[in-house]
Here is the input.
Amino acid sequence: MLDQAHMISLFENATEGIILTNGSGHIVMVNPAAERMFDYGKEELIGQNIEILIPDKYKPHHHQLRDGFYKQPSNRVMGQGRDLNGRKKNGIDLPVEVSLSHYHQEGELFAIAFIVDITRRKEIENSMLKQKAELEKITDKIRQLNADLEIKVEERTLILREALQKLEQSQQELSEALDKERQLNEIKGRFVSMASHEFRTPLTTVLSSASLLSKYTGSDEQDKRDKHIQRIKNSVNNLNDILEDFLSLGKLNEGKVEKRVEQVNLRGLLEDTVEEMKAMMKEDQQIVLDCNESHEAFTDKKLLRNILINLISNAIKFSEKGKTITITGKVEREKALIAVTDQGIGISQEDQHHLFSSFFRATNATNIKGTGLGLHIVKRYIDLLGGEVELHSELNRGTTVNFAIPVNVI
Here is the structure.
C-alpha cells in the first residue's frame, strides 16, 4: 500500500540512525543509517543487546540506566550538558546525540533511539575553541605591544580595534551557532514527542480493529466487520496525512522543492480541487465556490493545488457539521487573489502570531488531529511562488485565509 511504502521509505531513508529495542534491551530493528554509522550489518545487530553499541568503560553500569528508563519511560534527549559516545564495530568511540521515545505493544515496552553522528559538529566546536585561543594570544600580544610602544598611540589603537572586532565577530558567530543548535534541539524534541503521540493512536486503532475482525466470522456480522474496516481505513488515512506533512517539510528544508511554471486555468483548478475535497466533508457541510475567471495564467500548478488542499482540509476539519466553507478566486493586476473562509472554531489573537511556525497548534485545537505543519508548509509554498498570505480569525466565528501569488495572465 502507498502509505505503508511511505512508512518504510521514512524508516529506510532517514538520515538519522533509528534503533528499536524490546523490553529486555535487545535490538529488534535497525535502519540503514544506523548500520552505516556503527559499521555493522543489520544481521550482526538484530537480537544483540544494546550494550554492543556502548563504549567499554560505560558498559558495566549501562544496564542500570536502561532499567531506570524502562521503569519510568519518557521521551527525552540524552547527553545534555556532557559528551555522549557510541562504539563502532572497530572499537572506536563515535560522538553522538541520542533522543529516546517509547511505546507499548501487546503489553511489552519498546524503546526507540534516534541517533545523530555529531563528529563534524565536534570538529567545528574544537576549531572554534582553537580560534578563540588564538584570538586570546593575539590579545595578549597587543597588550604587550601597548606597554612597549606607548609613543605609537595611533598604531596601537588601530591594532587593538581590529583585534576587538575579530573577537566580537568570533563571539557573535559562536553565539549564533549555539542559538541555532538550541533551536534545532527544541524542534527535534518537539518532533519526537509529537510523532510518538500522533503515530501511537492510529496504530493502536489498526491493531485492535485487525484483532477484532478475526472474531466476526458469521455472515450476520458483516456490519461489525465493516465498522472495523472503516476504522482501519480512517487510521491509515490519518497516518498518510502525517507522513505527507513530514515529507513535505523535509523536502522544503532540504531545498528539494522547486517552482515549475506552467499554464493553469484558475477556475478549473479550483473546481477540480473542491470536487476532490468533498469526500472529506462532514455531514451537511457545503463548499461554495465564487470564481468566474476565464483567464489562463502561468504559475506552479502542483504547489497551488497543495496550498488549496491544505487550506480547504483545515476549513473542513475545524468546522462543525452543517457549516459552509466559501472559496473565492479572481485575478487582478497579474496576481491571483484567493480566499478560503470557514465558520469554524476560530483562532485566538494570541495564537495567530505563531500559526505559521512549524509544529505549532492553537490552544483550542489540541484535541483535533493534526501535526501543526499545515499552515507552515502553506507559507513556505506561497513564499516559493513569490506571494503573500494573511489570516483573519475570531474565536467561535470562523477563519479566513487570503493569499496572493503573481501570475502572468494571457
Observations:
- The chain is about 50% helix and 20% strand.
